[in-house]
Specification:
Two copies of one chain form a homodimer. Chain A is about 70% helix and about 5% strand. By secondary structure, chain A is mainly alpha-helical. The first copy, chain A, folds into two domains: about 70 residues, Winged helix-like DNA-binding domain superfamily/Winged helix DNA-binding domain (Arc Repressor Mutant, subunit A, Orthogonal Bundle), CATH 1.10.10.10; about 150 residues, GntR ligand-binding domain-like (Four Helix Bundle (Hemerythrin (Met), subunit A), Up-down Bundle), CATH 1.20.120. The structure holds a DNA duplex.
Chain lengths: ~240, ~240
DNA sequence: GGTAGCGGTATGGTCGGACCACACACAAGC
DNA sequence: GCTTGTGTGTGGTCCGACCATACCGCTACC
């Protein structure tokens, strides 16, 4: 007779916890009450609490751990990139958007970051990137190279200073990790491809070091398009 | 003795379902097996299955419904924007990134979309946007105006043709809905602000209709910055 | 006195079973 | 033929129990 039908127990718990997070009552690093206590306090079952916490965990806001130590229990630990990456990856798989759109979005993001980074990058940023590049000089297999590549691109985004853009960059790059890895594995001359990618990276780094934002942006766009174009699109006949 | 410690029951279920989704075995519109059957098939408890499904639901990939009809049960229904919006909103609340970064990201996205839209928008797109604008001419309160505003901006992004960018645009706009609403409510002369926003919208629409991408991008950037700058940043003293 | 070992305890992780609420399908009755 | 009731399959919820882990503190031994 309430008119509004019972709004689902786990949603109630979720709303409650989100309210605490939004209001700033629970901040990163804080421990949430034990599941049993939360359940009792909200008049919900423990299962309802667990479902809500599981959702928040998937959204990269909390982390749970058993035990009694100060690090155990459920803690507020923001990790947006991982959560965003998984969502994008899933929706990519389920055809929520085509791969070409992802390429365009990646170009947009990384051009933007490159422009910012050319202006804002510190000396330490440049050194960090250089270290990533040096690490990529080894004879890495596609998987290891891919991870190092992610680190380099994310380092650029990070030195741009915009955290959201940086997280989105990481998320998008990780969402296409599988596809790009496939492309690397199917490449006949992997060492040659690897060498070319390394050279492109060095050029981007040089442009950033010189503070030439437009050139850096152009270079990174060409770098991304060449790689994505390699075989990401067209599932049609050869 | 396996070396690898049992990888959590619900994660096993999650991995299984994601594999089905990624492989294309389960596609949008398809029905998943009933929870009980899935549990039996995977040798997991129903609770483990429910936690996994809850995560997927939060990620905007499935939708659950009771009953026996063809629409009931758990169905693959991609809804990325809502999921992304919630993640961004949560992380905004939890200080994963500052509001100014969100503003910059929004400007980047919408400039990009405006440029695309100026080239690609169809006549129908323009008419649709015009309809949104007309709807905003009524004496709307902030909440209603805000929703119409979202619809207009998303319509621009959609007519740009990049689905991922479009979804990200909606997600980011929705993540700041609360903040912007607060700004609207605190505005002394709401009708005047509303009128100005309307005028800016008309200018953007005109630029898109004329196919002038740069002008459209400039106008939308000014529009966004003026509004976000209103009181989104600086929580310091007046 | 120090230290190694052991049990206590708090926490999340998992399971099984039961019941409820809902929505449709179908048959019985008017 | 239409309505009504009953059955059935589905997700939603709860309870209670037990497990696995990690720390804490006590005890007993050296």
């Amino acid at each position: 007779m309430t008119g509004v039908r019972a709004p689902a127990a786990y949603e109630m718990v979720l709303a409650h916890v989100e309210e605490r997070l939004t209001s700033g009552e629970w901040r990163p690093g804080d421990r949430l009450p034990p599941e049993r206590e939360l359940a009792a306090r909200l008049g919900a079952s423990r299962q309802a609490v667990r479902e809500a916490l599981r959702v928040l965990q998937a959204q990269g806001v909390i982390r749970s751990q058993v035990g009694t130590g100060s690090d155990s229990g459920t803690v507020v630990v923001p990790a947006p990139a991982r959560a965003l990456g998984r969502v994008l990856q899933l929706h990519l798989a389920v055809d929520s958007f085509p791969v070409d759109d992802v390429t365009e979005a990646r170009v947009m993001l990384e051009r933007f970051s490159a422009g910012l980074a050319a202006r804002r990058r510190s000396a330490a940023d440049l050194l960090g990137m250089a270290a990533e590049l040096d690490a990529m000089d080894a004879d890495l297999d596609p998987a290891a190279f891919s991870d190092a590549d992610i680190a380099f691109h994310v380092a650029i985004a990070a030195s741009g200073g915009n955290k959201l853009v940086s997280e989105l960059t990481r998320a998008i790059r990780e969402s296409v990790r599988g596809v790009l890895l496939g492309a690397m594995h199917e490449e006949r001359d992997w060492p040659a491809l690897r060498a070319r990618l390394r050279a492109e990276h060095r050029e981007i780094h040089a442009a950033l070091a010189a503070g030439e934002g437009v050139r850096a942006a152009d270079r990174i766009e060409a770098h991304i398009r060449a790689f994505h174009g390699r075989r990401l699109s067209r599932p049609g006949p050869a």
